[in-house]
Amino acid sequence: MPSDEPVLRVRNVRKGYRQVPVLRGVDLDLPPGRVAGIVGENGAGKTTLLRVLAGDLRPDGGSVHCGGRIGHCPQETVLHDAFTVEQHLRFFQVAYGLESLRRAEELMEVLRFPGARRRARPGTLSGGTRQKLNLVLALMHDPDVLLLDEPYQGFDWETYVRFWDLAEELRARGRSVLVVSHLAYDAGRLDTLHRLEDGVLREQERDAAESGDRVGAP
Ligand SMILES: Nc1ncnc2c1ncn2[C@@H]1O[C@H](COP(=O)(O)OP(=O)(O)OP(=O)(O)O)[C@@H](O)[C@H]1O
Fold first, then answer.
1. What is this structure's pTM?
2. ipTM score for this prediction
3. Could you tell me how far CA 94 lies from the centroid of its own chain?
4. Mapping DSSP to helix (H, G, I), strand (E, B) and coil, where does residue 43 land?
5. CA distances for 62 relative to 12, 53, 67, 177, angstroms
6. Ligand 1 centroid distance, CA of 119 (Å)
7. Sorting pLDDT into bands at 50, 70 and 90, what band is 91?
8. Which atom of ligand 1 is closest in space to residue 48's alpha carbon?
């Protein structure tokens, strides 16, 4: 039986920019094997929150505890045009200390990353293909918690469906996924849905979200 002990525990996180508060006391418990969504309007602070959770931004107060490895797929791709796709994979392999690219290869297969583009530079890839690479880089070390900021922007429908199959596979293996979007997309695919509003996170009825502002994705 998987434990319900949260793998990610967030308490009273506060963060502002130049004295303007954005996060005013965010709490969140994410147990293993859960897919959770965070929605909120433009500027609500979703990206700020994910960056704090990923350790990329320092909170002004509160605490973030993660009992495992984190994967972060930010909204802005982490790709650098000095390197080819293959070089990105090798660079991240070393950074993560991985023996092989086995998992990366699997992920590229699942997402149908075009093999012929492995020697290409990111700037020459389509937006959706760049996003696939971004996702592979965030996932290739098989993190316990995956933080995704608007992950399927630019994905076609088939890739979008594959993305959710992948999220399902991660959940089945006890991994946790936190997906941020400004839309209450397919809330039925989530275990929990949270709304970031006025700097705090509140759990929301998924049915209400679906009948309310559900918008066709991606
Ligand atoms: N580096 C920064 N310096 C100053 N202000 C910032 C910075 N980053 C974000 N902000 C401000 O913080 C607020 C929250 O921004 P954030 O990008 O976290 O929101 P968001 O919910 O992700 O928005 P969106 O849905 O548009 O991506 C906004 O008012 C934004 O202008």
1. 0.89
2. 0.96
3. 22
4. coil
5. 5, 11, 17, 22
6. 34
7. very high
8. 18
